[in-house]
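Example record for the data management plan.
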Amino acid sequence: NAGESVLKDVSFNAKQGEVTALVGPSGGGKTTVSRLAARFWDVSRGRITVGGMDISKIDPETLLSLYSIVFQDVTLFDNTILENIRIGNKDATDEAVLAAARLANVDEFAEKLPDKWNTNIGENGCELSGGERQRISIARAFLKNAPIILLDEATASLDVENETLIQNALSRLIQEKTVLVIAHRMRTVARADKIVVLSGGTVAEEGKPDALLLQGGIYAHMVKLQTESQSWTLA
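Corresponding structural encoding:
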């Protein structure tokens, strides 16, 4: 419903150089927050600031230059792997593109392809797996080297090997950056500097991971559920 409020009285700070993780039940508002931050959508009330500046007053192109965005629905073009990564910085040299690609573990699959880096990946990357597409998206972010990273850690559909390669790439990407991550995996969350639990469009809990675990609320329950599901075995 277009007229429905998705977020109500949501207020939190994502500090410079820290990882702020958004967690909570599906439909709680996590994705909305990340898309508002990038101004894919505009807020109808309240305001979002970056470095103290109201983003609605910043030129959209200038604003986007501050962000590297790694979302699940990555847009790829019917072109080579090299050119798809170069979108992160159109003036980058081949050497810079390859360096970013290696940081994102793209070389692990690109080197095996018939034309290697010059392999055409098809319409919207139809020749690639989900994990390979995501690594191209991470490589773009390395190449762009923006100070703020918006990350949707949507790795649910990936096999273990792909997931490990992506997690390793992401941990390199977010070093010393300001990071807002929609977190699905509790082990990512445990390493965050701050957790914001969104439930029903409001901030239900906020704080450091250890402090929230002790509270025994929504976050503690989510950790318990994920830990239990990981230890299930078939008799």
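Summary line stored alongside the record: Residues 188-235 form one domain.
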